[in-house]
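Hello again, I could really use a second opinion on something today. I've been staring at a protein lately and its backbone has me curious. Can you walk me through what the tokens say about the fold? Take your time with it, there's no hurry, and the full record follows here:
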Amino acid sequence: MITGQRFLLFYKQAFPHKIIVGTICLLSIVFPGLVGCARCPEKLSIVNLSKSYKINSIISSELKKPVTFDMLMADLNTVRIIYVGEQHTNPADHTLQLKILKHLCALKPNLIVGMEMFDQTYQPILDQWSSGALSTQAFIEKTQWYANWKFDFDLYRQLLDYIRQKRIPLIALNIPSYIPSRIAVGGIENLLPEDKKFLPKTINTSNPSYRDYIRKIFKQHHIEGIDNFDYFYEAQCVWDDVMAQSIAEHLNKNTMIVFAGNGHITHDFGIPERAYALTNASFRTVMPINEGSEADLTVADYLWVTPP
């Protein structure tokens, strides 16, 4: 994933002996000020709009103005897939995710949840969690949380507890994290046969806008050992296509809410447009954006202003 600290952790895991240059949150490169700081103004500024917005404002990109939470939920209730982004270490992002999940759960009896945080090999463990068969500690151990995702489990505790409490099916969307790192250094063709079995059926590298977006990040962050942009871009596309395929395989007649990093849903480049190509299912994107930032309305259907 291209967003923030998770990106850096991913490559630190891939190259533990290397020094990674440029430890700033990568999304802050694309959207300056996104990380937030003590000197930042306490509002979100929208490119090409004269107004700025405080914490908990929800701005519709279609209407180009704030909407109420009830208006947001009324719209989300009309689609099949709801993508809610996050900056992984921001507790406020997970709070709004939980709020949306609770309201959708009341509206959609066939609701299922897809999460970037788990790779597909852990699906049997997620099934046990949704059925209420596992304690929290057993879940952390069986999913090898701190070896795989690494972020503080408490950031996700309330979200996962609610999923277990309501017996909501939980879907692992991701590919084992070592696969993209191997692609980034050697390309898809040089993967071992046992690694290729995890690849998605289709890998779409044809979007020039997405390629330009990833290239900007690649150019601004030198990562020792990652020298070939084409391999780097392949790794990102594999990552997104795997999650899109996981959504398509589990959607059926359900409604799915997807929790993933902001970089996987921005401008629909990553997961949303790929899942749509496979399912033709209607969707919306909701992206948490820090106050004190400047953002473009086109990044998502809704921008939700959160504390840094």
User: Anything to note?
Assistant: The CA atoms of residues 47 and 114 lie 31 Å apart.
